What does this fold into?
Amino acid sequence: MEKIEAKHFKIFNPLSKFFKRKLSDFSLSYKIPTKKERDALLNEIIEFLNNENTTVSGKHRKKQWENGWNENLLEFQKTKELEALIPKYFNKFKIQRLNGDFIFPVENNFEIKIVSLFQYAIFNKYFKNEKVIYEFGAGTGHNLLRLREINKNAKLYAFEWTNSGVKLINLVANFLNDNYIKGIKFDNFNPEFSIKLEKNSSIYTFAALEQLGNNFTKFLDYILINKPKFIVNVEPLNETLDNKDLLQNLSIKYFKKRNYLNNYVLHLKSLEKQKKVKIMDTYRTGLGSKYIEGYSIVVWKPVI
Ligand SMILES: C[S@@+](CC[C@H](N)C(=O)[O-])C[C@H]1O[C@@H](n2cnc3c(N)ncnc32)[C@H](O)[C@@H]1O
It folds into this structure.
């Protein structure tokens, strides 16, 4: 049995005391698959990629997101527990990727906990001292509550295209007496340009642009016009993965099959050539789930 340790987060060094406390509180353990188990997983993924019909992302999925977040909304209204905000897709498969390879989690809530640890590290690195922060495609808003643990004073805006998500976020803000968390309806496919971002704001997305496929140029236009200080996208980024590595290659194929974000970094690079943006960093976290390594990071800013 192995333990999740500080070394798994070394890309975010130096780690804060807060982070180390969370790491020790969560106390996560996992097992490394045997060669036979690993081969069986690879086989399942290849079978899936070859045979299964699957839902693809796009505008047609809005109703599904609406219904999904409505389930969380109803649960929160009933229980008044913040746990109700955790998306139901977490912990679905008892397999994760760590350092880009499979692991078998030992505890039940491993996935949301390891994702939370990565978020704490990301928030601490980029958003600890920011004053106005936007999350686009914020879902139930649960990420913002983790950000709030790290940054007590920032104004936090959750932009999300579903009514249920926005309603839930505003309900939770009210429940927590947090006047500086606000949910606003916003469609990344068709940004409402009359909604202006506050000055000196920063932005992140977490597994949200993934839903745009190739359809991200209007979203980028909106960002460029609003000139935030910087943006951190934590998303499936095909450009960060190496198609000569089997797991990474299968992950890229899965992105394609689900119509996830495609060639986003490539597009940012072309904007960089036109001197419209500056890319500060692009890297893998190695974190993922059964089918994908879905959490790579690109940090960039509009050139003002
Ligand atoms: C995988 S979920 C991630 C939600 C949240 N960021 C999180 O980490 O829990 C994808 C989110 O993107 C939202 N989304 C998809 N397409 C969108 C669009 N065009 N505009 C705004 N949000 C969108 C969905 O409603 C959902 O909340």
Notes: The CA atoms of residues 3 and 29 lie 4 Å apart. The mean pLDDT is 97.
